[in-house]
Amino acid sequence: MGYDYALVHLTYTVPPAILLSILYAPLCTRLDLYKIVFLITIAVTSTIPWDSYLIRNSIWSYPDNAVMGPKIFDIPVEEVFFFVIQTFNTTLLYLLLSKPTLHSIYLAKEKKNDKWKVLKLGGQLGLALIIKKSIDWIKTPGEYTYMGLILVWASPFLLLLWTLAYQFLVKLPLVSTAIPIAIPTLYLWVVDALALHRGTWVISSGTKTGLYLPGIGLEAEEAVFFFLTNCLIVFGLVAFDNALAVLNTFPAHFPTVPSLPTPALLVRALLLPAAAYDDDRILGLRQSVQRLKNKSRSFYLASGTFSGRLRIDLIHLYAFCRIADDLIDNAKSPAEAKLWILKLRKFVEFAYGEAKKGPDGSVTPATDINQGAATLFAMNNFPQDTLLSLLYLPTQRMDKEPLFELIKGFEMDLAFTKDANSTPIKTEPDLDQYGARVAGTVAHLCIQLVLHHYPGLSETASKRVMAAGHDMGIALQYTNIARDLKVDAENGRCYVPISWLKREKMTPESFVSALRSDKNEEFVEKRIEKQRLHLLERAFGLYEKSVGAIEELPRPARASMRVAVESYMQIGRELRTPGYQVKAGRATVPTWKRITVAWRALAGPVHSTR
Ligand SMILES: CC(C)=CCC/C(C)=C/CC/C(C)=C/CC/C(C)=C/[C@@H]1[C@@H](COP(=O)(O)OP(=O)(O)O)[C@]1(C)CC/C=C(\C)CC/C=C(\C)CCC=C(C)C
After folding, report:
1. pTM of the entire structure?
2. Does domain 415-610 have CATH number 3.30.70.270?
3. How far apart are CA 460 and CA 457, in angstroms?
């Protein structure tokens, strides 16, 4: 009896497991736990018979003085623990690295005889040849026996996973495929070489090739073994995510998706022929994600922490809001902006207008991509690259009133006709109303989506979170205005209420001129800063009043909502830091700080104005 093998775990496999667990804990969902347990169960059950066979046939062995003693089917318990910990570590690394990935956008509809068929067949053929060769090697015992045994065990699983998930294995970013294979493989090569040199485990000499990995002197079989086992784990996870992406993306095939899909449902999703995929849905999602990625660093980061169909709905909602705001903001004339407002209203009317009431009073809701009037209207009136995002706005899951209110908010901006003095924001209540329209509404819609996907909150609690969300939306809008004072001034806009400016003996026009100038006297700069701080004071007042309500939201959306709010309010915290200089007209939050803020928000309630 000895502790050498146990020591290998204590020194090399357990510390990374602890580190990865600490890093991933705030991001971990029930679905992630399900994936981890699923993968470990498959890894352990599929490896035990093979490993046991190898030990009983003396391909490798463990000196008595290196292991503690207890065995399962002749395998030392330390070795069984190895299957568990290796799968755990590689899985956590994969989950961590692929958190930002929205898997649905990597699905691809297949057409007859396109490149996908060739690729799938090529991979299958390659793996089938490997299986054939390894059987030949096993049949003639000798120096290729161990290599043959490794390949004959791993390749059929790889063949199966390739057949089910080849699209994702090829298309996913390398950070979700190659990196989580490469890092644990290189690490385990070093650990294995050290253990072999110490004699913790021994490979018999008659059944190995005698080839070594240059540099660390590791047997080729061991190098192949660790590479393939990590491939198996990552391929398995990719197939799992492929199945989830199919389930989440195609409601026509899978109307409802349980929070923890059964293995049978996952297999059914993987077996859906890629020719049956709805490519408009995939393209629409790709366009909405691209818009989110290009336009908002805060919400893009936050979107990665939401999951399933809620994440998809929020991304389409963001795209709709962004498209509407941009069409109006970038219009070449007030007349064009007015026309966009009319068109947006009409589009929303059409999008909601298709619900039909039957003679018995039953309501047939509009389908979420309206093949009827809304589609036709959008095709005739909106730019090509906005169509799919508009059409996939999740109208059946949200009220229409907030959307009309949002458009009313955009309409308020049209009042800035001649100069900044024509502002519609005369008093603080005017600014609150503007914030309620452009942001309170967005909060209402976001919360509605959350409550649709995670139902069960009582009516009173729902009302409470809606009211708090409304205030939080206004808080974000105040922050947005404080950040964009200079940018808005360049466009002749001033959102600071006239009543506030009056106290400083300023008008919107003089305030805008000061913001545009680089040569202000110190007292003018101080006045500008005072207005910015006043806006932020109100922003944080509203934030403090409403932030607690996030903890009343359904648990699966709580932490993600915290990230969305906190990563935006961080802009306000930066602006409030004494001595902070606004660069290029806009306050930005460095990436490392964004990630830290998001991580802290995921870990638990934040409640901080500083
Ligand atoms: C995670 C994810 C994808 C969320 C989507 C959130 C979403 C739909 C945002 C829409 C943003 C948008 C373009 C709205 C148009 C009107 C507008 C410009 C509003 C301002 C947003 C700023 O966005 P951005 O900085 O990108 O815009 P500009 O560069 O300035 O043009 C706003 C500041 C409003 C955003 C308001 C919210 C997202 C609501 C926040 C409140 C909650 C989520 C509720 C919290 C819950 C409780 C219970 C308190």
Report:
1. 0.92
2. no
3. 8
